[in-house]
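Why predict the complex rather than its parts? Because the way molecules touch one another can change local conformation, and only a joint prediction can capture that. The input here totals 550 residues.
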Amino acid sequence: MIKFKITNDLNLCLKNLNLKTNDKFVIETQANEEFGDYSSNLAMVLSKLNRMKPYELAEKICAELSKNKDYKKCEIAGPGFLNMTLNISVYQKLLKDIIEKNEMWGASEAGIGKRILLEFVSANPTGPLNIVSARAAAFGDSLCRVMKFVGYDAMREFYINDAGNQVDILAESLELRLREMHGENIGEFPFEAYHGEYVKDLAHRLNTLEGTRVLLLADRERTEHLKDFALEQIHEMQVKSLEKFDVFFDSWVSEKTLRQQGVVEEVLSYLAEADCTYEKEDAIWFCSSKFGDDKDRVLMKADGSITYFVPDLAYHLTKYQRSFDVMIDVLGPDHHGYVPRLKAAIHALKYPEEKLEIIFLQQVNLFDSGEKVKMSKRLGTIVTMDELVDYVGTDATRYFFLDRRPNSHLNFDIELAKKKSNENPVFYCQYAHARICSILKKAKKDKISLKELNPEMLKKLTKPEEITIIKKMLEFPSVLVSIADSREPHRLAAYAYELAGMFHRYYSKYVIVNKKSLVLSMGRLYLIMAVKNVLAVSFKLMGISAPEKM
RNA sequence: GCGCCUGUAGCUCAGUUGGAUAGAGCAUCGGCCUUCUAAGCCGAGGGUCAUGGGUUCGAGUCCCGUCAGGCGUGCCA
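Output of the joint prediction:
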């Protein structure tokens, strides 16, 4: 919002000088004091348009801008950068806005009117959620929270692959475990079956509820019953894990339901109508290679069953039919080979490809005491999301998953996440919040009541650290907008960390509560209250708690 | 072989979408508690941004090549 003001001020200067603009110049915040508070590349960007040398143009703008009382200084540097320093009274006034907006500071209408569908986690319903799902949950949920906060109409969706081959294997695994429980010799447990302990737990539960009745059913009925039971149980288990992680989906879409609605046939006929299918070796193929995929893909196998691709494509078409402006898929690292055929089909069916955005999360490695934790699906030594969350806590887990760019591999240091010290960034951030709460309490105890905020209090805030903190908080709204637009929530973690650091440094240098100078104390208390609010908002958007005491 | 991702300090990672002298934390070394939470603060050292070219006023960022690592490349899901 401050950049907005500066942009306006600069445009006014251009207008007064009868100069042309193309709105391509940018305002940047400057960390280096030498270059002022904010700088702009305006002169370089507009020099050709106005047939002037950058430096000359910059000189004119500077002279004009200096007439504005809000600006203390305007200098030209390098090839023609405009370095602007604002009067501190501007910041003092803006602090009042931050405080008045309270927990709505940062909220905006940047995305107003845009409907967004965020699909993430969408784990197979064949076992407990793993740590990649946890990363997806932290990422998708926070992105959604930020998008909503800046005005988008965003919703979370989970696609359940509750049909297909893997579900048959699940039913078979459950049956074997049930038989085994009753002393039957099942031989060696099949390689491709689900080896996790949870299958045994499911068998126990089924046995407690229904005994061995299911084993007496006819083949087909028995499989269906086992499937339904396992799917329902595992779904519930996954929902619980997510809720514990403070992630709630607005919508669940079941592949099985889609199939029952006949969408599979529909998709096949659409593709056939578009003249994109052919028969070869008793199978039906989609000529995806005509649309950029490496090779053609099977839609219907020789045995008459359907591949994973068909219902998934159907699912994506339902997304289009629900008229979103943008649909975002958050996928795991093992899916990137799959996207070309999906995009190919969407293209072939003449749906707008650009509305579908795919974000890949790279794999997660767990490290404990410097050692990589070895995980194997086959050996059943997968660390589940619940285990991780129970061990290090929701706050640390969410923060650590959010802290890194989505498309880079993530090394999760369990030992560090558990540490309650400055080494751990989560605690560093939360500690700042708790500290502020503690100071506010102390002020109350000293009977410093925060009366109505008045200009005299704000005028006391003149230290460079104070102005730096205000500047940082002024950036918050635009940081959130850029997080939403770039789909990069990791920047929120960085922002909170930086703001917390600024506060810690400020705290150690200055006394905030001082009975001898009441007006100053009140000014500073307002400042840290604002910091507390901004921290609390960023924590909320990250899904971590804002402790009052630590 | 082909495709996607990655390569920045000893380690883990940022880098404001192409801006000025590339930044944090950890680790190492040295300081700061009779005063609002030391779960904190201050200081020091540490770099050929994998590499070679190109684009321009300007490149860690964009384009091409090379090298290295990860993943993918089923009539699995």
